[in-house]
């Protein structure tokens, strides 16, 4: 106990005289080392930020393993597209419920440190079971693995954000969220471009393709999940140490979930939910099935198809923080959402009905996807009282996952029976419904004198007048 107190005194400003004399006598390298070890210093927080970013890397890398290996999974496991898309549906099913209870488990049951470690373990175990399903040629085992993986994946993102608020609240928090999102997109991009190449290397090593090659490839990909678990353990240690030295409280998600609040949700909030679901179901299931689409329609090689399929994530990595800053500075959230939805609609129309170079449409899709995330999600805070925010965001994520689970299955069925053109028409219909909801939201918001489309300057003036 005395050793712990001594460490705290040595690291805090104005520590013990003995510590001060040692510091003055030490070379510059010692000062840099002390800054890295002191949780009140920027250098230490940057180390923590690095661990936070890599915490979600494995989860996002492995989430789209099926998309990167779509051809191989369908061939080696002898499944049609409908069964293939169940790998995404099973990921989403547990999160229909966990969006409400993930924050509760972190705050009240496990705590942020144990919660992060436990959810990281779910991600690791899920990926291992998924890979074993390939090795033993058991598709049901692959489905079980994706279900377990889903239990950990979304809740790990909640834990990641909780750590960010705990360490950076009032200090570069928006930038931190942007960097975390960028690292997530980098994980998805690396997966899209690496897994096909890795499969070919394993195939060359084993001498033939097949379910064993698929399983071994997925198992090697699971190493990234172990990296995430190591980051979770390191973060738990550093957070506990900072709590002891700085006497700071353990991070809380800030989510207060009361399902009874749902009955009080306003029409604008329900329209935001519809926009969210109808938009995202035309993005993630499309990427999940995109590789074969670009191979069949445009004659791309497997590697080129993977590259273009990942361009949405490539663009999202740098543009999400930039668009976040743009929306913060200008306001006008509804106009930005409208621009994003219209651009996405144009992208799907181009992909469906033209033979134009698909890089154009996919780059537009990447830009609009990044813009919508920055403009849509903050709007919830403008139409919901603060005490209902946790419930509103939980419900929004819940119905988003429900939509993704259902639409993933429907998309697979359409592709098996009707082909890619009908599937693209289906996605166009979904985005059109999202566009209709944006227009309706604009009209309702204007009639109610709402602030969803205020400029940043107008919002600041309204805030000041309320404070007075």
Give an account of the 3D structure.
With 468 residues, the chain is mostly helical. Helix content is 82%, strand content 0%. The chain is built from 22 helices and no strands. The protein has helices at residues 2-11, 17-25, 28-37, 42-55, 57-63, 65-68, 70-76, 81-135, 139-168, 173-206, 211-221, 223-246, 267-280, 284-298, 302-309, 311-330, 333-353, 358-376, 380-383, 389-417, 420-447, 456-467. The longest helix has 55 residues, at 81-135. It is globular and about 65 Å long. The relative contact order is 0.12. The model is unreliable at 4-10 and 12-26 (pLDDT under 50).
Lay out the secondary structure.
Blueprint: H1 2-11, H2 17-25, H3 28-37, H4 42-55, H5 57-63, H6 65-68, H7 70-76, H8 81-135, H9 139-168, H10 173-206, H11 211-221, H12 223-246, H13 267-280, H14 284-298, H15 302-309, H16 311-330, H17 333-353, H18 358-376, H19 380-383, H20 389-417, H21 420-447, H22 456-467
Helix pairs in contact: 3-4, 4-9, 4-10, 4-12, 5-8, 5-10, 5-12, 8-9, 8-11, 8-12, 8-20, 9-10, 10-11, 10-15, 10-16, 13-20, 13-21, 14-15, 14-20, 16-18, 17-18, 17-21
Overview in brief:
The chain is mainly α and 468 residues long. It has helices at residues 2-11, 17-25, 28-37, 42-55, 57-63, 65-68, 70-76, 81-135, 139-168, 173-206, 211-221, 223-246, 267-280, 284-298, 302-309, 311-330, 333-353, 358-376, 380-383, 389-417, 420-447, 456-467. The longest helix has 55 residues, at 81-135.
């Amino acid at each position: 106990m005395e050793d712990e107190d001594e460490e705290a005194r040595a690291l805090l400003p104005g520590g013990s005289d003995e510590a001060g004399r040692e510091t003055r006598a030490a070379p510059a390298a010692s000062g840099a080392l002390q800054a890295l070890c002191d949780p009140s210093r920027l250098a230490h927080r940057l180390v923590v930020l690095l661990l936070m970013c890599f915490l979600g890397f494995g989860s996002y890398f492995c989430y789209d393993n099926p998309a990167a290996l779509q051809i191989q999974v369908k061939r080696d496991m002898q499944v049609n597209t409908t069964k293939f898309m169940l790998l995404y549906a099973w990921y989403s099913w547990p999160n229909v419920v966990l969006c409400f209870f993930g924050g509760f488990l972190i705050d009240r049951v496990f705590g942020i440190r144990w919660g992060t470690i436990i959810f990281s373990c779910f991600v690791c175990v899920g990926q291992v079971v998924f890979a074993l399903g390939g090795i033993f040629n058991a598709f049901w085992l692959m489905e079980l693995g994706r279900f377990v993986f889903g239990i950990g994946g979304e809740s790990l993102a909640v834990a990641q954000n909780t750590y960010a608020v705990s360490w950076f609240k009032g200090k570069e928090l928006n930038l931190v969220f942007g960097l975390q999102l960028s690292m997530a997109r980098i994980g998805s991009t690396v997966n899209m471009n690496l897994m096909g190449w890795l499969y070919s290397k394993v195939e060359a090593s084993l001498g033939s393709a097949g379910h064993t090659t698929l399983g071994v490839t997925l198992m090697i990909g699971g190493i990234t999940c172990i990296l995430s678990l190591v980051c979770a353990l390191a973060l738990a240690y550093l957070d506990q140490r900072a709590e002891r030295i700085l006497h700071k409280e353990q991070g809380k998600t800030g989510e207060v979930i009361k399902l009874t609040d749902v009955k009080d949700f306003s029409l604008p909030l329900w329209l935001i939910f519809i926009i969210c679901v109808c938009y995202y179901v035309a993005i993630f299931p499309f990427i999940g099935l995109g590789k074969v689409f670009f191979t069949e329609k445009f004659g791309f090689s497997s590697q080129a198809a993977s590259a273009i399929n990942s361009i949405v994530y490539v663009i999202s990595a740098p543009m999400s923080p930039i668009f976040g800053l743009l929306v913060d500075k200008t306001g006008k959230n509804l106009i930005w959402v409208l621009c994003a939805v219209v651009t996405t609609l144009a992208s799907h129309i181009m992909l469906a009905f033209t033979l134009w170079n698909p890089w154009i449409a996919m780059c537009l899709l990447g830009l609009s996807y990044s813009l919508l995330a920055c403009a849509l999600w903050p709007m919830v805070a403008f139409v919901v009282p603060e005490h209902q925010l946790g419930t509103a965001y939980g419900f929004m994520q819940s119905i988003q996952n429900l939509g993704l689970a259902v639409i993933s299955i429907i998309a697979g069925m359409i592709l098996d029976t009707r082909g890619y053109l009908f599937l693209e028409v289906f996605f166009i219909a979904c985005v059109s419904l999202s566009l209709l909801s944006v227009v309706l939201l604009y009209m309702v918001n204007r009639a109610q004198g709402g602030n969803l489309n205020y400029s940043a300057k107008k919002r600041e003036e309204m805030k000041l007048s309320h404070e007075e």
